[in-house]
Amino acid sequence: MSLHLSGWDDTIVALATPPGIGALGIIRLSGNKAIDVVNALFPSKDLHAQPSHTLHVGYLRSQEQTLDEVVVSLYKSPRSYTGEDIVEISCHGSPFIHQQVIQACLQTGARLAKPGEFTQRAFLNGKLDLTQAEAVADLIASNTEASHRTALNNIRGGFSHSLKELREQLVRFSALIELELDFSQEDVEFADRSQLRNLVHNARNHTQLLLQSFQLGNVIKNGVSVAIIGKPNAGKSTLLNALLNEERAIVSEIPGTTRDTIEEVINIDGILFRLIDTAGIRAHAADVIESVGIERSLEKMKQADVVLYLFDVNETPPAELEKTVADMQAQAIHPLLVANKVDLLDEADVRQKFLHVAGILFVSARSGLHLEVLKERMVDTVLHDKVKNESVIVTNARHYHALQEVYTSLTDVAEGLVNNIPGDLLALDIRRCLHYLGLITGEVSNDDLLDYVFSKFCIGK
Q1: Is the pTM above the cut of 0.70?
Q2: Which stretch of 167-171, 271-275, 354-358 has the lowest confidence by average pLDDT?
Q3: Distance between CA atoms of residues 308 and 171, nearest Å
Q4: Residues 179-204 pLDDT 10s
Q5: Can you name the residues that pair with 54 across neighbouring β-strands?
Q6: Fold matches, 12-127 and 139-218+396-442
Q7: CB 261 within 8 A of CB 278
């Protein structure tokens, strides 16, 4: 169903490809005068007489001046991305040509598009719901396989479909309960309370799973912060350089060389890990600067999603390691233990030395020994095989907060059924649940919400 509002009946234009020099640039128009605007600039043929989804080659002219030889793509309403007439002009990738073509379109009756306005029109015209529209922005911003896969699943309606059936069932029950209120004097019951209990039970479980997926969704969308901590000269900077496969951090035999935190990003199996090389932590710093660096290291450790505790197998007694781990666990920090410099000793002897400390990974940052095993453990710590091709994962904070309200409303409905509260109070809780479900998909919306959502898009999409 179209939600088209007044004030959205003009024609917009924008550059749809990244600004700058390239082989080609695409200028997109959408609106009821899109074909009129381009037809006035394209003397090669009458675009009104051409069928939809066709390409046309010719010269673009404005005020007796030839702007460029272009390919015009024609998509007539309603079979287009926005549901309106869309014309795309593929011209050569000169920023000067782009500017000239857009200016000619403006002079002929179009206006510049706002960020996300093409997708916003697709939403208003019923081509996408709000979750699918937001997934478009996520797909454009995706920079890993996992974020790409999740956004593509949501564009296909994976998340929307998981909410649609629940909403339809709740609407049906709400209507029956409302009908009961019209016959309140006759003490009739149209809505089967046992079916409603089952529905609410299943809905709460499903909503809880979606809420739990947000932690994983946040990882997929924003990456994982990994703090590499340990004593001075444990090999933290060497490990960072080895994981990045480049000399990013200064490495020396002098303890305390790293004075501040260094952050770099690495893609492991489709997940972004933000590696943070911290200043070595020791009880007595050599100077004020090192002390500040240690304080920042401790702060980063508490904020990180994953903590790698790196220690030198040659200089760390097992009892000291166990005490360090216990101290961190007392602060709700559960580190991955990484034993470094195993290449300097017999690895079997090293493993025997730390036999009673569980979960240690034995590596050599300098030689690259067992670093692939470390990478696999980092990914497993975050994902635990949770990302599937068709799994529904919540990545949007707005959806998460609305789902929290949905879960609260469903809990109130469940408690109301147990306590046999009147139908009018049950109807209120169900309507509140429907309201927040509608906020997610855009079936309940307001201008401020839409402006916020689409303002995060790039211009031209």
Answers
A1: no
A2: 167-171
A3: 49
A4: 666 555 555 555 567 777 888 888 88
A5: 74
A6: no
A7: yes
The answer to whether 173 and 202 have CB atoms below 8 angstroms apart is no
C-beta of residue 335 within 8 angstroms of C-beta of residue 308: yes
- Per the CB < 8 A criterion, the answer to whether 193 and 416 are in contact is no
- The strands making up 224-230's β-sheet, listed across from edge to edge, are 262-268, 271-277, 224-230, 306-312, 336-340, 360-362
CATH architecture of the domain 223-383 equals 3-Layer(aba) Sandwich (3.40)
* Domain regions of the chain by residue span: 12-127, 139-218+396-442, 223-383
The residues pairing with 199 across neighbouring beta strands, listed in sequence order, are: none
Largest interatomic CA distance in the chain:
88
Q: Tokens representing 117? A: 């306005």
List pLDDT tens digits, range 215-227: 777 777 777 888 8
Lowest-confidence pick of 26-30, 44-48, 131-135, 390-394 = 390-394
Q: Which residues of 385-414 are buried (b: 16+ CB within 10 A; e: fewer)?
A: eebeeeebbbbbebbbebbebbbebbebbb
Give residue 51's region: left, alpha or beta (phi > 0; psi -120 to 50): beta
φ, ψ dihedrals at 118, nearest 5°: -65, -45
Which CATH fold topology does 12-127 show?
Gyrase A; domain 2 (3.30.1360)
Q: Using CA atoms, how far apart are residues 54 and 422, in angstroms rounded to an integer?
A: 60
* Domain 139-218+396-442 sits in CATH 1.10.357.10: no
Question: Could you tell me if residue 431 is left (phi over 0), alpha (psi between -120 and 50 degrees) or otherwise beta?
Answer: alpha
Dist. CA 125–CA 83, nearest whole Å: 6
Q: Give 317's contacts (C-beta < 8 A, 6+ positions apart).
A: none
